[in-house]
Amino acid sequence: MGGRWENDDTHADAGGDAGGDAALLRAVAAGDASALAELYDRHAGWLHARLARRCTDPEVVREVLQDTFVTVWRSAAGHRGQQTGGWLWTIAARRLVDARRVQERAARVETLPAPAAVAPSAEDRVLTALEYGDVGTALDRISPELREVLRATVVDGLSTREAARLLGIPEGTVKSRALRARAELRAALTQLNPSPAGGPA
């Protein structure tokens, strides 16, 4: 990477003052933000130009450049005397590769087919008010402790663990009560709406 950097970049200041850069990096490692700003002033120009030759998206170039110096701030202590310009470019090149991977993943996600919709059960349709409006009546017909679990897990959308914390009961109790609650609710819905709710859930 170092030799390629030497041959590929025509900026006279790309390497910077080696001694000055080393001192700046030591200061950055010690938490000196002004040293980072000076290092940025020395090297951001040629880094930006070189990144722009490899990426035509100016927003990506800007983000990669920013990420590069964030990485420098966090890892300056790991600099082991390498040529500063080459070390900075190694970081920038890796950040650019990372950015491209993110873009590629996003592009692949955009081309994926939408997941097939899962038909809700009869009681879920009632509880989410998608089909029926008589939710309160159906819920009032099941046991209070079962009603609490059903409201927490279905109406409020909580996970089993979250519902257990909210209600102060074990997760296993939440699961068993949820099963019983659905059975009781299904029976209540059958009485309230014999035709639409009486079919399979």
Automatic annotation (TrEMBL):
<protein>
    <submittedName>
        <fullName>RNA polymerase sigma factor</fullName>
    </submittedName>
</protein>
<feature type="domain" description="RNA polymerase sigma factor 70 region 4 type 2">
    <location>
        <begin position="135"/>
        <end position="185"/>
    </location>
</feature>
<dbReference type="InterPro" id="IPR014284">
    <property type="entry name" value="RNA_pol_sigma-70_dom"/>
</dbReference>
<keyword id="KW-0731">Sigma factor</keyword>
<keyword id="KW-0804">Transcription</keyword>
<dbReference type="InterPro" id="IPR013324">
    <property type="entry name" value="RNA_pol_sigma_r3/r4-like"/>
</dbReference>
<dbReference type="InterPro" id="IPR013325">
    <property type="entry name" value="RNA_pol_sigma_r2"/>
</dbReference>
<dbReference type="InterPro" id="IPR013249">
    <property type="entry name" value="RNA_pol_sigma70_r4_t2"/>
</dbReference>
<dbReference type="Pfam" id="PF04542">
    <property type="entry name" value="Sigma70_r2"/>
</dbReference>
<dbReference type="Pfam" id="PF08281">
    <property type="entry name" value="Sigma70_r4_2"/>
</dbReference>
<dbReference type="InterPro" id="IPR036388">
    <property type="entry name" value="WH-like_DNA-bd_sf"/>
</dbReference>
<keyword id="KW-0805">Transcription regulation</keyword>
<feature type="domain" description="RNA polymerase sigma-70 region 2">
    <location>
        <begin position="39"/>
        <end position="105"/>
    </location>
</feature>
<comment type="similarity">
    <text>Belongs to the sigma-70 factor family. ECF subfamily.</text>
</comment>
<dbReference type="InterPro" id="IPR007627">
    <property type="entry name" value="RNA_pol_sigma70_r2"/>
</dbReference>
<dbReference type="InterPro" id="IPR039425">
    <property type="entry name" value="RNA_pol_sigma-70-like"/>
</dbReference>
